[in-house]
Amino acid sequence: MNIGNLDLNLLLTLDVLLAELNVTRAAQRLNLTQPSVSAQLARLRGIFDDPLLLPGPRGMLPTARAEALREPLRLALESLQRAVAPPDDFDPAKANLTWRIAATDYMSSAIMLPTINRLRSSAPDCRVAVFGLNPPMVAQQLEKGELDLIFHTGDHAPETLHQRKLFSERYMLAGRRGHPRLQPGLTIDEFCQLEHLIVSPDGGGFSAATDSALAKLGRSRSVVLSVPHFLFMLEVLASSDLVAVLPERLVRSSTRLQVIEPPIEVPGFDILMMWHERVQRDPAHQWLRQQILAVV
After folding, report:
1. Beta strand extents in the chain (DSSP E only)
2. Confidence at residue 3, expressed as pLDDT on a 0 to 100 scale
3. Three-state DSSP class for residue 206
4. DSSP assigned state of 263
5. pTM
6. What pLDDT score does 202 carry?
7. Of 44, 104, 167, 288, which sees the most CB atoms within 10 A?
8. Nearest-angstrom CA–CA distance, 83 and 81
9. Is 28 helix (H, G, I), strand (E, B) or coil?
């Protein structure tokens, strides 16, 4: 039998007929006329090549084929009903899910760090997997369900995804606490004479937004170290005389670093939360996004 040739309404009628074993009562439950139900029963007999229901002393008697169909059909229709029913309200206290989020180490520190405790207290049986951000692949990963949510800078963000701005970030100048040359009122000449450290996510880069801003003034600085991660950068800053221009949220609460305004204006950037249409209306994902918005 080709299931594609089956009419769902016929299966619903068969389910009620097998429960009532009476055409009249089945018609009443289905809000149909008795002749209409009888006509559907005739079609079902042709489809299954079986009488299905036979006249009996008190109603109708199911054939062996009908008896074999009764329970699997009921379960299948119940499963279909659950599948097409509107989603239930999300209860984080009872949920058991794994959310997959992609972010840079800076974004993980600025966004996920303050979010984790909130998630753990509200949804104790849910898990979070944080992945490294691979910008060229994120749209495809979200579409396939390999990721649920990403954090991305406003520059070059995939246009096909839903997005919500989380915050605007600005740059600060940081070095170890007690750094002899890192004082408020630092001039641009003094800034350029310092030895700088930068993060190069792709590895090996020695130029960043600060260098573009300096170039517009005909100036340059000495970048002596390039590292791939902010965590390593912070350790180097705390244990050397190198300095770095880096996002404020990464260092504003640090007790190991001295943080001042840089003597040059470096354009900041926006941080976006982004997700695919497939989870746009999902109650669990809506709840997750609300938790992140509440802490940033």
Report:
1. 53-56, 59-62, 98-103, 127-132, 149-153, 162-169, 171-176, 195-199, 222-227, 244-247, 257-260, 269-275
2. 67
3. coil
4. S
5. 0.71
6. 75
7. 288
8. 5
9. helix
